Amino acid sequence: MAKLVLLRHGESTANYDNTYTGWSDVPLTTNGVFQARAAGARLRAEQLNLTAVHTSMLKRAIMTAYIVQEELGQLYLPITKSWRLNERHYGALRGLNKDKSRQLFGDAQVAQWRRSYIAEPPHLVQPELAPAYSKWPDSIVPGGESLADAERRLLPYWVNAIAPHLRAGEDQLIVAHGSTLRALIKYLEGIKDADIDGVEVGNAEPIVYEFDQQLNISNKNILHVD
Asked: Which of 11, 71, 87, 205 is flagged as catalytic?
């Protein structure tokens, strides 16, 4: 029986400022570093047999992953960084304060953009092509995404890079972002489109799934960190 740990990064500067982030590469706050260390310490008690770590191309997730590995005493583990695990792209909302967006567009519209499965934010006319993605086609950088779009891009990574290890009985750790983890949870648990708006993933709060060899979930445990 294999375990999968899902972990959202610690608090970022954008979380602190209450702004939309998406693919913007913002750092952890001091509190975010503390949260990551606490999550790693909490995971030590789980006696995980991790063989690999998976994270996004964004430093708030990467640094959280490194801190957790250090707390586990497992910095030697291979870590793979994939754009497919990046946060949902918030398009033209990036950098905008969330409270300000409610003033500009109304509570109902913002709730749709943030929590709906299919609603897309206003798109960027010209997506920003950061050097980190230069080895891939420009088309991988979206102008904006719904949660459904984010799920479609992350599922190939799940199928090809994570699921085979779990079937082989190898524990895996994914350190990613609130929306992409919500999308993966929706897929894993078969949550209906209309019900995903009630799913929350807290910063640096580990979620541990146990799977059988057919990847049926036998247990789920959310590890609350003080």
From this structure: 87
Residue 163: burial class (beta carbons within 10 Å; 0-12, 13-18, 19+): middle
Average pLDDT over residues 210-221: 94
Residue type, 67: I
| Domain ranges within the chain, ordered by starting residue | 2-222
Instruction: Report the alpha-carbon distance of residue 98 to residue 63 in Å, rounded.
Output: 25
DSSP letters for 69-114: HHHHT-TTS-EEE-GGGSPPP-GGGTT-BHHHHHHHH-HHHHHHHH
The pLDDT, as a whole number, for residue 171 is 97
CATH topology of domain 2-222: Rossmann fold (3.40.50)
224 is catalytic: no
Tell how strand 217-222 and strand 171-176 pair up.
unpaired
Residue 200 annotated among the catalytic residues of the structure: no
